[in-house]
Amino acid sequence: MATVISAAGLVKTFGRTRALDGLDLEVAAGEIHGYLGPNGAGKTTTLRVLLGLIRPDGGRVRLLGGDPWRDAVALHRRLAYVAGDVALWPGLTGGETIDLLGRLRGGLDRRRRDELVERFGLDPSKRARAYSKGNRQKVALVSALSSRAELLLLDEPTTGLDPLMEVEFRRCLAERAREGVTVLLSSHVLAEVEALCDRVSIVRAGRVVESGRLADLRRLTRTTITADLDAPPPDLAAEPGVHALRADGPRVTLQADRSRLGPILARLAAAGVRDLTARPPTLEDLFLRHYTPPADAAGAAAAAPPADAAAKAAPSADAGPPADVGSSADAARSAGAAPPVGGRESRTERS
């Protein structure tokens, strides 16, 4: 399968803060790839490198076969970007904004555009200055999902949406994926990623610490077992592969390494099992495994500034286009579009 995004050893520093610290990432064609991490882990900095908005200090990156920095204008016609904090041209209506962004992205499917406007409950005749945060987000999503983009880069795309619209977004994204569109979904909403994504990468302190198919990652972690027994529970404290053991009368709860499930279940069965529940690891379990620091490291972790926070605080020489059109910044300039007021991103050294 072709690789749409390939990054190796990416490094980006802002002052004394290293936002990306040797980051590796690969996204295959046609997949929805979840990019997970809390605020400050390096997710947004990664996306801005992929968009050509900032230049990495080290490492190698390819996007749709091109260089995001040198080939930005051509690449932006093949991708669509949605940020979690959308700003629009205040004097344009929602419909005018959708159509403008569609032209910059290489074309718009008019039928799909009209369908998505209805599905998201958006009034396209209103000017952007009258939109709520959620409606600004809908404009960006309709524009991206109705474009002919080969790649969608989504950074916390459901910010500001109500639960019903979040469900609609998931349906729409799954439809585009079935059509062969590649998606990189950056999020800290674990349920959203678990529902949508084929593969996930977990980023911590500017590095990808785990990456793979969810099913494969689950096999590498522990299963939670709860058993109600007929007899006093066996002494499992010294049993290899047993973790977080708790006993409350005849009830036993533990976490078991998958490689040791057989012997552990046999020990429980010998005590007579009245009821047993085995819960495979969730995405939250996988995530928290990398974000539960030991007690002696907690203080140091709390003192360290978040990578993306430092990136966002880095100075910029000028104001650029709004967040939702950041990926089309160069294309907009080449097309002669007037820059909007109050933009948030630029091609300067800013994240």
Automatic annotation (TrEMBL):
Record-stated family: Belongs to the ABC transporter superfamily.
PROSITE patterns in the record: ABC_TRANSPORTER_1 (PS00211), ABC_TRANSPORTER_2 (PS50893)
Domain ABC transporter positions: 5-230
Protein name per Swiss-Prot or TrEMBL: ABC transporter ATP-binding protein
Principal location class: membrane
Domain of life: Bacteria
Subcellular location: Cell membrane
InterPro entries, per database record: AAA+_ATPase (IPR003593), ABC_transporter-like_ATP-bd (IPR003439), ABC_transporter-like_CS (IPR017871), ABC_transporter_ATP-binding (IPR050763), P-loop_NTPase (IPR027417)
Keyword Nucleotide-binding assigned: yes
UniProt KW keywords: Antibiotic resistance, ATP-binding, Nucleotide-binding, Transport
UniProt keyword Transport, yes or no: yes
Signal sequence range: none
Biased composition regions of type Low complexity, renumbered to the chain: 298-343
Span list, region Disordered: 298-351
